[in-house]
Amino acid sequence: MESDNAGGPAVAGPGNPDISAADFDRAASGGNRGQTANDAEFLRAAQRSRDLVLLRYFDSDGRLITMPAKQSRKLAVLDIVAGRFIPGVHYSETEVNRELIGLHQDYVTLRRALIDFGLMDRAGGEYWRSGGSVEL
């Protein structure tokens, strides 16, 4: 697992060095440590920090730069990734892989995290979105 700030100064990360880590944490606060990823508090924290997550963890082309170590930030990143899949649509593993390869070189770990955090489910070789926020 990669650290959020690998030995450098307290900056938001490669996506936007203008946002301090402290500002990011203040904006993302609201998720309680020790809770499971499916708890409503974590989902609310993920929604509140969406813009900061986009700036910090994604490059200008929308590719994931790094996966955060902190669980609430990881859920926020995965919520953004899950948004690329349409609720109710079933996808083959090849289709899921093709979408995730465009986001990050380690698409297998990304796919597994979507399943582990309850944002996607799978059965019989098919995947479908089962959680996360939905744009209205």
Please, could you describe this protein's structure?
This protein is mainly alpha-helical. The chain contains six helices and three strands. The protein has helices at residues 21-28, 40-48, 50-57, 71-82, 93-101, 107-116, and strands at residues 90-92, 120-123, 126-129. A three-stranded antiparallel sheet has the order 1-3-2. Helix 2 packs across helix 4 (71-82). It starts with 20 loop residues before the first helix and ends in a 7-residue tail after the last strand. The relative contact order is 0.15. Mean pLDDT is 76; it is low at 1-20 and 26-35.
In short:
With 136 residues, the chain is mainly alpha-helical. Helix content is 41%, strand content 8%.
Strand line-up across the major sheet: 1-3-2
What gyration radius follows from the Cα positions, in whole Å? 15 Å
Query: How confident overall, as mean pLDDT?
Result: 76
Poorly predicted runs of 5 or more residues: 1-20, 26-35
Number of helices: 6
* Portion in beta strands: 5-15%
Structural class category: mainly alpha
Order of helices and strands: HHHHEHHEE
**What is the 3D form?**
globular
Number of E-type strands = 3
Could you tell me how far the N terminus lies from the C terminus, measured between alpha carbons in angstroms? 33 Å
Characterize the biggest β-sheet: 3 strands, antiparallel
Helix proportion: 40-55%
